[in-house]
C-alpha cells in the first residue's frame, strides 16, 4: 500500500489501529517503501503520524538512505528535516563514494554528500573520493569544495 501509493487505504488502516512502524520480513517499514519509491504524500502522512524516521531494515538501511539512493531528493529533504539520518557505516560510505567517483557518477556523488556522507572518508586503500575522482573531470569539480567545506 505504501509502495503503490494508496493514501486513502493507509489512512483507514492507521485509523483502525494498525501499527505505524510495522515491518515486513526484511524489517522494511511503510516509510522505507514510500521513500524508496518517492511517494511524498505517503511519507508526509506517516511523518505526521510520528513514524520512526530512522528505522533500520535488516541490512541497516534507513528510509533516508533509500530515498537518496533512488534519487528522490524531495522525500529525502522531508525525511532529513524530520530528523532522519543516513546511518551508513564509514566503510560502506567511503566505498560507495569512491565507486561513484570512479564511475564518474557526479549526480549521485553530489546527492550523497548533500545528505551528509563525508567526502573526506577513505576506502580500504586509504584513498578519498577526491583521489579516485582525479581522473574524472565531472566529479573533480564537486569534491574539492565539498571536502574543504566539511572541515569547517
Topology at a glance:
Elements: H1 7-15, H2 30-37, H3 40-48, H4 63-70, H5 73-81, H6 90-103, H7 106-114, H8 129-133, H9 137-140, H10 143-151
Describe the protein in words.
This protein is mainly α and 152 residues long. The chain contains ten helices and no strands. Helix 2 (30-37) runs antiparallel to helix 3 (40-48), helix 4 runs antiparallel to helix 5 (73-81) and helix 6 (90-103) runs antiparallel to helix 7 (106-114). It is elongated, with a radius of gyration of 17 Å.
- The residue ranges in which pLDDT falls below 50 over 5 or more consecutive positions are none
Give the distance, in angstroms, between the N- and C-terminal Cα atoms: 43 Å
In total, the number of strands is: 0
Number of helices, where a helix is a run of at least 4 consecutive DSSP H or I residues: 10
> C-alpha Rg, in Å?
17 Å
| Helix/strand structural class | mainly alpha
Main sheet makeup: none
Which word captures the global form? elongated
| Beta-strand content estimate | under 5%
Mean pLDDT: 84
Helical coverage, percent range: 55-70%
Helix and strand run: HHHHHHHHHH
Supply the key terms:
152 residues, mainly alpha, 10 helices
Give a brief rundown of this model.
This protein is mainly α and 152 residues long. It is 55% helix and 0% strand.
